[in-house]
Amino acid sequence: MDRTERTREKFMELFGAEPTGREGTDSEFMRILQRFIFGEVCYVGSLDNRMRELVTITVLTVKQALPQLKAHVGACLNVGISPVEIRETVYQCAPFIGFPVTLNAIAAIDEVFATRGISLPLENCETVNEQTRYEKGLALQKPVYGDEIAERYGWLPEDFSKNIPIWLTELCFSDFFTRKGLDGKTRELLTVVILASMGGADMQVRSHVAGALKAGSTAEEIVCALSHAMPYMGFPRLFNALNVAKDVLMKEVKK
Hints:
Blueprint: H1 3-15, H2 27-37, H3 49-63, H4 66-78, H5 83-91, H6 94-97, H7 99-115, H8 133-145, H9 148-152, H10 158-176, H11 184-198, H12 202-214, H13 219-233, H14 235-244, H15 246-253
């Protein structure tokens, strides 16, 4: 198949519709976009439709591309991703991009769920309580990241040197990463995508690439996820992520 035929095949798989022809006011642009994303990028690398669509809705949440997010939530449902998996993918962006913009994305996905007849709220996926937040979060964080944050920010005034590492452990690793609905490998890989698509988080990208490898992703899967995110976040952010994680990834590639 040439890339035009592949575009049609992938578009039907994801959206159940034909790609853009000559209709609309900007059909030329849409043909460039669709043939590149759905005729080329989607066919390079090992990730399946499920993982690629989770990567896509992650980037669209970070970028606040809400109309496109709605379209790809529909694609997620079409390829068998559960509403809980979609929700958890969006929820876990919050510690990195902030609560307000995450709420925008939640409103967008809920709108799609409503149109598909999916009852809300979805099932509760919490696994921790007020008494276990810190211990449960630390149990996930420490084997992968050690005491890096506490050591790095020990120079802060006392209240902050104590509380900032605790906040990270309890909010990111406990309130979100311990939730049901996504496995740890998927969460870590999507975290790499979140950080890469944000820009300006080079240190965290490198750290979470190492974390994704420890959680079970291969170097090829990480590069594939970042490459799949590229049409939505741009080449500069792809190259930034690959450059800062180069030494970590090369060690795995050479094994």
